[in-house]
Amino acid sequence: MTTTAPPPALDPTQAVLGINNGPGVYICDASLNAVSPGIGAAWAAPWEALGYLSEDGPTLSPDVSSDTLTPWQSTSPIRSVITGKAISIQFILWQTNPQNMGIYFDSDTSAATNPDSYSFDIRSDEGGYIYSVGLDILDGENALQFVFPRAQLSGNGDVSFSRGAIVGWDVTLSALDDAGVLAHVIGGTVTPPAGTSGTSGTSGTSGTGTTLGAN
Q1: Which of 42, 129, 58 minimizes the C-alpha distance to 93?
Q2: Peptide bond into 62 cis (omega under 30)
Q3: Which of 19, 26, 85, 180 minimizes the number of CB atoms within 10 Å of its CB?
Q4: Residue 115 burial (CB count, 10 A)
Q5: Residue pair 26/35 in contact by the 8 Å Cβ criterion
Q6: Per-position DSSP letters for 72-116, written without gaps between them
Q7: What distance in Å separates the CA atoms of residue 184 and residue 85, rounded to the nearest whole number?
């Protein structure tokens, strides 16, 4: 009897570093129905880059909740029922501008179009803005993208103002259901641009206060 050897399980080419591709994180108003440009392609309008993040980068956090079903005749469950699925992305924004503070404070910054001179109100009677969010990773030829078609601010961390430290705006955006989809995952290999090694990300700048939210 002959058997076929399974494919090798140890493949170093599949060990991917979490390196940003360009600015790396993008956002836009969910009502615009923006889609990913695809791996290896540039993110164009209406997507806007969020600029520098803290050195920890973005963190994806999936969560599954379930209920176990235990019969009368046993002390151990015989079934488990999935009752909820969720996924969120968390990062600390290192650029202070109307766009990023609008996300952090869940506020409308549409009137703050000039990043050199702006003002806006943090209101109690507005919020719940819904965004599309894109994460773009590129390590050599390995590319990976995550896109939340609909996401909403679900948490924000404290902001410290101190000497010797960049002011960071800590936000968590949680995916909302979009016809049964929480997120799109796109992966594969691409050819790095000529003259680059493809193993280090490039920096980018954020937008200048365009309205991003959609109730």
Answers
A1: 58
A2: no
A3: 180
A4: 16
A5: no
A6: TT-SS-SEEEEEEEEEEEEEEE---SHHHHHHHHT---TT---TT
A7: 14
Domain ranges of the chain: 19-63+88-189
d(CA 108, CA 131): 13
Phi and psi at 112, nearest 5°, equal -90, 75
Alpha-carbon distance of 50 to 89, in angstroms, equals 13
Q: pTM here?
A: 0.85
